[in-house]
Write a structure and sequence with these properties.
two-stranded parallel ribbon, 4% strand, mainly alpha, 73% helix, 191 residues
Amino acid sequence: MHKLKIFLLVHFFTIFVFIIPSYSADVIKIGVVDTQKVLDTSLLGKKMKNELNKLHTGFSADLEAKGKQIEKLQKEIEKLSGSKQSLSETDKEKLEKKTRDLKIKIYDAENLKEKYQNEFNKEERNRLKYTTKIVQEIISEIGKKEDYILIKNKRGAIFSPEEGDFTDKVIKLLDSRYEEGKFKERKRKPQ
């Protein structure tokens, strides 16, 4: 009986010391990344937003100039039409021509606004797609290097502990590669 107790004790000790730790050695690593934070705070993300703001500002300035031309023409029409009874034939023709020009300018401005909006949306999608692709490549690289089994966007996670969040690591790596000039410049096509 004494030998049986020793035998069981040795087996229990062997199982506890050698077998159980080998099962727990493969820790499942799950990480989370706040991709919106990466886009908002990284150098590449900031550059993308600045370029989009410049594009928007240029479009807005052009549309504002068109609006001023329309306002000027409207004032001229109001002046001419103020004394409609006493208008000569040439003044009536001028009024009709200016009214026609006003309608054309308004139509052109509306089309230009729509064109600019479409261009801006397309450029925004392209830049976001380009930047997101780079961020995903960096996340994949970190995930492979550090043996993560799953990486999820923090925005979709109900709960995630802070130690699983490696957003700052992604931002640092992205910024260092950006500063080294490893990303090709995204040039806007001339119009």
